[in-house]
Amino acid sequence: MDLPKTMPDEVRRVDRPRPDSELFQHREQAAGYGVNPRDGLAQPVVETSNDQTYVPPLEPATFVCMADRSEFVLRAGTTELARFPAAEVTRIDLAAGPRYVVTQQRAYDRVDESLRHLVHILVGTAFVPVVEARAACQHYKRQMSDMAGNPGRKFVSRFCMAQRDENGEYVSLRDGLMFACDLRDPPDPITARRLDAFDEEKILEGRERRESEQHTFDVDTALSAQGKNLVTGTVGSGIAFDVDTAPSAQGEDVQGEETSSAAGIFDEASVREAEDRDRARKTLAEAAAGPNATAITPKREP
Asked: CA 241, CA 296: separation in Å to the nearest integer?
């Protein structure tokens, strides 16, 4: 049978993900190819590093999708009465799902006497129902299978049923971290604070960036101001000098420096004034040597 020259994707790739497939077992990831130096044939190139292949530990504190059963809570409506560590809690597997209970005596010992009338006891038993510190998200689903036909090795797939990628697959949560999620059902206010804190930090960062952009250094303005200062004889400190009186003032300054040096009296203000005078002399000398020497050369007495 003659096959068409252009075959549809369903024929060319029978293992491709389809929008009607709820679960797809393989990740859609293109692989790079290189040349094998032994035989010159193409071979896949591993493009992952040690950091990319790192698998974080599975912890309820860093994976908000799963339940937190490190401790259990006894509640009466929305009022929390007591907390119990996992070692004090008994699990009962029922058709509707697992339930967790503690003994009536243990609950009474942990709850304040004024609130014991709120403790609900299971009918016909001496047990009190408790719940996980954080229930699992309703969108979080798991599957366990074998690896490459080896029943001795187990493979657990973790999915978020509230999201799909561009290939129609449910988003895989395997070997990853989930610190907080607004899609979580039921919501978890403790981890939701992480999102609020992150948003507040980003808002503050954006305000600081906008304020810094408003005071951006303008090179053209700075160069124009520098050119005006050279023509008018204004130094970087903002002190203007009269080019007519600069030579006589220069002589007086030198005498003043010698007198101060002899007397040994120098304070911080005097040092700054001396530095300003030195910069002014240097500026005048450089301007005199340039094309504007005629305009700013000081007048000399005959």
From this structure: 11
